[in-house]
Amino acid sequence: MYAAERLHASAPPRATWLERLNSDQHELGLRLFMVIVLAHWAEHLLQAIQIYVLGWPVPEARGALGVFFPSLITSELLHYGYALVMLVGLWVLRLGFTGTLDRTWWMIAFWIQFFHHIEHGLLQAQAVVGQNLFGSPVPVSLAQVWVPRVELHLFYNTIVFVPMVVAMYYHMFPSADEEAPRTCTCAWDRRAPSPV
Amino acid sequence: MIAIKLTITAFVAVLLLIVGAGWQWTARHQPPEKAIASHMVLGIAAAAGIVGLVAIWRPRQARHGRSQAPTRGGHDVRG
Predict the structure, then answer these.
(1) Average per-residue pLDDT in chain B?
(2) How far apart are CA A131 and CA A86, in angstroms?
């Protein structure tokens, strides 16, 4: 059984980059993706701590990089770029999630990120066109009409990150009743010595 | 597996602490209508974190009965 699965874990010789990314490179891809996501999280969490715990004025709370490079935090392009990277990452890595549970949680994260990306697209469009929605002095997203930006981003990042992490967890530790064949090396039970 | 669970739990715990701090801060520093909206999204964020914890901690039988004590050494399928 392990030997059969081992064959699946290797991409065929003429595999496309997408097939490789979702087979023998899936584990590496997920790790790199997680590094990017956590680095982004660190900035947002630090910004929240600066405001809520340290009592910094909101415009001064720019995370870590924003303190040294203030233009980063005000650049809608950077925010849109990250949202796009996140969306593309969730999409291109989805095929490696072959179980029912892990794929379901992963796609929940994808669809929430899809809406989040639309919101950032609106912000970016306003920055490009130079005209803001609802007569606002700064670019605003739809939800930002009601919810302040810092809290809104904590919210979006959380509701994308949680299903993403649960998906990764189920992917690494599949249930006994998961019948779907694994195409990658991510599951920890596949790293055990082969009984063959 | 337990190390991964504990790591995720610690992260969500930090998140819940920050959400709690945010809840108090928004109540004090934002106008009522904004504070209500902030409380709503912070509440949903906290609930999402708890749902995530329930999902990873709920009892389930691991595949091949090995995931409870995974062996990371030995032959790697990546060759």
Answers:
(1) 83
(2) 26
Amino acid at B40: M
- In chain B, positions 10-29, which contact chain A (CB-CB < 8 Å)? 11-12, 14-15, 18-19, 21-22, 24-26
**Average pLDDT per consecutive 10 residues, chain A (196 residues; last block may be shorter):** 47 83 95 96 93 93 85 83 95 95 97 95 90 88 92 96 97 83 84 44
Write the ipTM: 0.84
Residue B62 β-bridge partners: A175
Residue among A58, A37, A73 at smallest CA distance from A150: A58
Report chain A residues touching chain B, CB-CB < 8 A. Answer: 5-6, 9-10, 24, 27, 45, 48-49, 51-53, 105, 143, 146-148, 150-152, 154-155, 158-159, 162-163, 165-166, 169, 172-178, 185, 187-194
Bridge partners (DSSP) of residue A175 are: B62
Residue keyed to tokens 């490009």: A128
More confident: B19 or B70: B19
Q: Which of A26, A37, A151 to mutate to test the interface with B (most CBs of B within 10 A)?
A: A151
Alpha-carbon gap, residue A153 to A157, rounded angstroms = 6
Nearest C-alpha neighbor of A166 from the set A88, A98, A109, A93: A109
Question: Taking CB atoms and an 8 Å cutoff, what residues of chain B touch A147?
Answer: 34, 37-38, 40-41
Closest residue by Cα to residue A96 from A8, A183, A4, A191: A183
Q: Cα Rg for chain A, rounded, in angstroms? A: 20
The model's pTM: 0.84
Contacts of B58 in chain A (CB under 8 A): none
